[in-house]
Amino acid sequence: MSGPLLDYVLRLADTALILGQQNARWCGHAPVLEEDMAVSNIALDQIGQARLLLTLAGEVEGRGRDEDALAFHRDGPAFRNLLIVEQPNGDFAETIARNLLVDAYLLELYGALARSADARLAGIAAKAAKECAYHVRHSSGWAIRLGDGTAESRDRTQRALDGLWMWTGEMFTADAVDRAMVEAGIGPDPASLKPAWDKRVGAVLSEATLARPPDGWMQKGGKQGEHSEHLGYILTELQFLPRAYPGAAW
Amino acid sequence: MSLEDWPLFEVFIRKRNGLSHIHVGSVHAADAAMALDNARDLYTRRMEGVSLWVVPSGAITVSDPADKAALFEPAEDKVYRHPTAYAVPDEVKNL
């Protein structure tokens, strides 16, 4: 079980870590001070989730690697995050669109994982689900304001959605790891999360007067370690300090 | 509405049930719903409370500092208004 379970926990952990790193980049650059704090708070929630999940991954692996070893001393192909979270932040509309699509997915996923047969995972998921409920409230609120805002904010948000849509398929497509988790009662069938996600995202887009892009061809590969060119740059920044100064402490 | 036009809201937090809301500061926001979220993010990061109020700053009428003498000084010599003659039970913490 440690093989597929390790992969599965790393997918959750790396998605949280990279998403948190991306959101943290808004610190000092958000449109207003209040938003600076909001996005930074969200990033800290996500990095907190990543810490718990990476620690669990280290336990499952059983080779003595802790959260830091896994976050800072793995290279790109060893990361298992969804591709959507490593796409560039872009402008504020692109970040909000990305966060809406991912937050709505993570809310359903953690809700299901709170009932996992693995008690450790269930505990982490129950905590994360509460945080995600606020994250989706934040991204939904902004998506509605931007979509139903000015012609320019609507246009930018629509373009962001259109560009991001092809990265959403990976959330709901099962592979052998997902199927092993379903069989063991540890994780939900990814496809089973789709109706609730569709409903939530659809309701936000309709209130935001935005068009739901059609489900066309979808990108995949992040969960298996095949990444876009953006991940390397993110890891360069994320991993620089502990690699350049091993053992550095506050 | 440009960012400069965002109105100011005053933020009040109830620390725990049984206490009243206390003014803690202000936030900018496009409307009341956003003000509530911004207040949550700015003022409740360290478990400061269990309830939030946001009030448009313009809705608050403020006493004029120049009226301080007329408004507040007449109370100075009326110590009999303080309920110091009552014995307060030890269990009452927040009187």
Given as residue ranges, the uncertain stretches of chain B (5+ residues, pLDDT < 50) are none
Largest sheet of chain A: none
Structural class of chain B: alpha+beta
Overall geometry of chain B: flat
Q: What is the structural class of chain A?
A: mainly alpha
Mean pLDDT reading of chain A: 97
What is the third-level CATH name, the topology of chain A? Answer: Ferritin
Provide the β-strand percentage band of chain B.
15-25%
Uncertain segments of chain A of ≥5 residues (pLDDT<50)? none
Number of helices of chain A: 10
Reading the helices and strands of chain A in chain order gives HHHHHHHHHH
Describe the structure.
- The complex is a heterodimer of chains A (250) and B (95).
- Chain A is mainly α.
- Chain A has one domain (2-244): Up-down Bundle (Ferritin).
- Chain A has helices spanning 2-24, 33-61, 67-72, 92-113, 119-147, 151-164, 169-172, 176-183, 194-207, 230-244.
- The N and C termini of chain A lie far apart (37 Å).
- Chain B has 95 residues and is of the alpha+beta class.
- Chain B has a domain at 3-62: Phenylacetic acid degradation B (Ubiquitin-like (UB roll)).
- Chain B is built from two helices and three strands, in the order E-E-H-E-H.
- A three-stranded antiparallel beta sheet of chain B has the order 2-1-3.
- In chain B, strand 1 and strand 2 (21-28) form a beta hairpin.
- The longest helix of chain B is centred in the middle third of the chain and has 12 residues, at 32-43.
- Chains A and B meet through helix 2 and helix 5 of A and helix 1 of B.
List its traits.
heterodimer; A: about 250 residues; mainly alpha; Ferritin; globular; B: about 100 residues; alpha+beta; Ubiquitin-like (UB roll); three-stranded antiparallel sheet; 2 helices
Characterize this entry briefly.
The complex is a heterodimer of chains A (250) and B (95). With 250 residues, chain A is mostly helical. Chain A has ten helices and no strands.
Strand and helix layout:
The complex is a heterodimer of chains A (250) and B (95).
Chain A: H1 2-24, H2 33-61, H3 67-72, H4 92-113, H5 119-147, H6 151-164, H7 169-172, H8 176-183, H9 194-207, H10 230-244
Chain B: E1 8-14, E2 21-28, H1 32-43, E3 51-56, H2 68-72
Antiparallel strand pairs in B: 1-2, 1-3
